[in-house]
Amino acid sequence: MRHENIHITTDIDINASKETVWKALTDIKSWQDWASLVHSCRGNVEKDGELTLRFINPQGGSYAFKRTVFLYDEGNAFGWTGDAFAGMKDFHVFELESIDNQRTRFIQSDGLHGADVPGIKQLEQAMLKGYEIFNQELKNFIEDPDSNQLFTNHQ
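Above: the chain sequence. Below: its structure as tokens.
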């Protein structure tokens, strides 16, 4: 059996401090308030934390999965892993790089490894589009004064 892997990396620069971006990113319970493809998220963003995530499929319906936080570097990065589908394993990482005191590069990467899946290239393209939407919505949420006020009050 041939094994196909998906490797996706996308990034966006956000006009906010690394601390502000980290605070918004790790408040996963609020993702559904600003991310259009997120239905709900529960759990603890901490090393070995368990997460339950439900995302909206743009083609209809939604899908849920459980993940374990395998990477946690306070203020810098976190990532989850778990079984995906068709024997594939998922490794999803969110990273922050400080550009300067008020600008942060948000990097989102994902790797699916382990099986030959028909239509994997279409899946990869759909995932990339979803991640780019998430990135832009995170940026908008943090940079918009009205959203930022909501975020400040949400904590």
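The domain at 4-154 is CATH 3.30.530.20 (Alpha-D-Glucose-1,6-Bisphosphate; Chain A, domain 4).
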